Amino acid sequence: MKKTGKILLLLMTFFITGCQSAKSVYGKGDSSLVVLIVDENNLAVGDYSVVLEGGKHSGSLRTNSQGMCSFTKIGKASYFLSGKKNGYTSLTHIPVQVEKTGSVLCFSVTSEKSVFEKALELYEQNLFIDGLTILDTLCVKPASWSSAALGLYRTVGLLKTNQKIEAQNQLTQTRQFLYEVNGKICRDNNQFLFEGDFINHTELGVKAFTVVFSLYDADGEAVALKRSNIVYKIEMAVSPYSHCEFSIPLEEYYSDELKQEYLYVSQILYADDSLWLDPFGLEVFEGEDA
Questions:
Q1: How many distinct structural domains can be found in the chain?
Q2: What's the CATH code of the domain at 42?
Q3: Are 54 and 123 in the same domain?
């Protein structure tokens, strides 16, 4: 069944089983409007704030656990519908015409995870403006990890479209000195190791972090098969404002000499399960000559 068909079926099911329990706002008109909010998987989105503006009987509601809310006894008129919830795309000033009792409208929003995945996919296709446009529809709380990640993605888009001044301004606004990481390649019993030190500069404990660095042989050739970076997840608890030493085995990379050129952390998983992302290594980008 096509996606549209699935939404219609879901809409009918929710309307039949859940309309009576939908959160409502009442007016003095002779019409009504039921709003259903679903995500990209056609699952109901609860606690989504919905605002209906225009006419004499405007109001604001939040969807129930079935993704529904009901504007009851409103006048037959033209309205504008808006909505938002942290972690989902927003609905902005959508024209709505109410002409009869029992009007039902379904709106699809996209979760934060899918938005970031889509933005990255667009960046990889060099569709930077499209990627930034999608990110701009995402509703996130200021100073949350998502807001930081959003700023980083915007910065990358600006860098790749050669808007370096704008990118630097964006980076200044969003970049947080959350960590420091240092390290070097060592040799022990003819085996190479990468030994490093990670410093947590936040008030949150860290559960895991992902280290990224380049690895080359004596001739300057990348030694990692099918990629130029070594990506290694360190699952180690780090207390707030503390540090930990870590070691990464490199025995699978055969060479008389190994060199490492840059180093950054692409992900930090905190003790509260929030996730900070810097997938492109903006520490490196920032250090490049303009």
A1: 3
A2: 2.60.40.10
A3: no
Containing domain of residue 58, as a range? 3-108
pLDDT score, position 287: 44
pTM of the model: 0.48
CB 204 within 8 A of CB 143: no
Other Cβ atoms within 10 Å of 200 Cβ, number? 22
- Coil, strand, or helix at residue 160? helix
| Residue tagged 């309307």 (tokens) | 15
For residue 160, give the amino acid letter: K
pLDDT band at 98 (very low <50, low <70, confident <90, very high): confident
Among 208, 180, 210, smallest CA distance to 271 is for 208
Give the tokens for residue 151: 């700023």
Here the tokens at position 222 are 């990348």
The string of DSSP codes covering 32-81 is: EEEEEEE-TTS-B-TT-EEEEESSS--EEEE--TTSEEEEEEE-SEEEEE
Residue 210's CB: how many other CB atoms inside 10 A?
A: 18
Q: Which of 86, 108, 130 is the last residue of a domain?
A: 108
Whether the Cβ atoms of residue 11 and residue 104 lie closer than 8 Å to each other? yes
Q: Domain ends where: 108, 133, 160? A: 108
Same domain? 140 vs 159: yes
CA distance 45 to 66: 7
